[in-house]
Each structure stands twice: as C-alpha cells, then as structure tokens.
Amino acid sequence: MSSNDQKPILYGYFRSGTSWRARTILAWKGIEYENRFVDLAKLKNNEDDYIKVNPSRRVPTYITPDGRALTQSMAILEYIEETHPERPLYPKDPFQRAQVRELCNEVACDIHPIQNNSVQAYVAGKDMTKREEWARHFIARGFEGIEKRLGKEAGKFAYGDEITMADVVLVPQYYNALRFKLDMSAFPTIERVCKNAMAVPEFIQSSPQQQPDCPPEFKQ
User: Fold this and answer.
1) Within a domain: residue 131?
2) CATH code, domain carrying 19
3) What is the model's pLDDT at position 1?
4) CA 40, CA 51: separation in Å to the nearest integer?
5) pTM
6) Residues 199 and 157 in one domain
C-alpha cells in the first residue's frame, strides 16, 4: 500500500476541545482516518509512546498519510482546509476570511489556553470550585467581545448563514462554557449559533459524547 493509500491518524481525547475541532473538520471534509485515544492524565513521564509522537504532551496530533506530524489544532485545521478545498470553511473574500480567522483566534489564542486544565491545576490545585470559577471568568471575559462581534457578523451560524471555521472553533468552547456552568444568558447570540451548528450532522458525529473513549457517565 502506498503512502497515498494510508489513512491519516488523529490522536485525541473525547473531551478535548482542540481534538473536537480536528474531528469536526475531518468529518466536514469527509476524510476517513484512524482514531487513537490519549488520556493525558495517565501519561507516564517519558515512558509512553505518545510522548515520542508529541513531546508537548498535548492533543490533538495529526499524522498525515505520508507520516508527517502536526501538533497544533489550528495548524491542523489550516492544513486540512488547504489540502482538501472542497466544502470550504472560509469565505472567498480576503477581508471576510480574515474576519473568520479573527473569530477563531479569539477562542484559540485568548480564551482556550487560559481556561485549560493545566492552567486551572496550576492556579487552583485540586480545588474544583476554584478551578471552575477561574474557567468561567476567562470564558465569560472572552465571550463578551465575541458576543458583540457576532451581533454584526452572525447569521444562522457564527459568520453568516454558512458553516465556517469560526463554528468549528467556537462550538467546543461553548461546550466548555456549559461544562463549567457559565450562565449563557448574557451571550444569546453565541448560544443560538452554537446550538444551530451542533445540530449539523458533522458536529454531532464529532461531539465528545459520540467518541468511543467517552465514558458512559458523560454520554448522558
């Protein structure tokens, strides 16, 4: 079998928002891939094979059909978008494309890293109440700006009436907001567009509850 016949590989974790981004674009583009599951909490220092794949000890990692690795979710999304241009996730107009990228970066650069589990653990240890308070604070702070932007740019979805990369990135962050019990009443547009996107088959297929490594208690 040639390298072109090999399926790509996605290392991920069911509840990882960045893994969800990658799963969604793979579903959207109709790309068959091998799913490999990584529980980051159970990795042993320098002993697990996954650390050799991704020394940063994070998910997702995407292995291309020819065996090359990408280890940052936004780079993975851009690579897949560029190599599979069918069903594009960006508008044609350069300025509109930049606006979609801005929405993506609001989440990927300004919200998600601060509310991530590793940061929560550093600032609050095992105090789950403080960890959730931290996550809610920074998600809400980021959502304030996004909510105002969506008031101008949103249609049925985050940017107009077609699914874009902004939805691929925003939906997992909305899921995290619900997970951390953020009151969404101040963010009605975010909630509306995310609920619309989450009803799209590719988002359902890639959701945490649909993943084989999702424990039964999280499927409810």
Assistant:
1) yes
2) 3.40.30.10
3) 39
4) 10
5) 0.94
6) yes
